[in-house]
Write a structure and sequence with these properties.
- Keywords: Membrane, Transmembrane, Transmembrane helix.
- Belongs to the multi antimicrobial extrusion (MATE) (TC 2.A.66.1) family.
- One of its GO terms (cellular component) is membrane.
- InterPro entries: DinF-like (IPR044644).
- 89% of the residues lie in helices and 0% in strands.
- It has one domain.
- It starts with a helix and ends with a helix.
- Helix 1 packs antiparallel against helix 2, helix 1 packs parallel to helix 3 and helix 2 packs antiparallel against helix 3.
- By secondary structure, it is mainly alpha-helical.
């Protein structure tokens, strides 16, 4: 998702089409937010019951549940951070990244 966004942003920035760049960034950030919310639900809802497959100790389960609550709650922010970083990297260092990837293939 971010790799295609990087390519689109680099292409449209080089053409000076800033309105399309904004649309691409908005779309990719929305997809990232949706992915983060989905991961929060997928991790948060069933994991409490899945943890009992590994242990029945109530103290361990309490620690695991508090950790999972933190991890699942932070997934929205983590997804947006990774998407934002990837898009920014594509805008600022796309030429360097392209040259370094090609040089690694040689």
């Amino acid at each position: 998702m971010v790799a295609s966004g990087q390519a689109l942003i680099a292409s449209y920035l080089s053409k000076g089409e800033y309105k399309i760049v904004k649309e691409v960034v908005d779309s990719v950030l929305k997809i990232g937010l949706f992915t983060g919310i989905s991961l929060s639900v997928i991790l948060g809802v069933p994991f409490g019951s899945l943890a009992t497959l590994f242990t029945n100790d109530p103290e361990v389960l309490a620690i695991v549940r508090s950790g999972i609550l933190f991890v699942s709650a932070s997934q929205r922010l983590n997804a947006l951070a990774y998407v934002f970083y990837g898009l920014h990297y594509g805008v600022s260092d796309f030429a360097y990244a392209a040259r370094s990837m090609v040089s690694l293939l040689i």
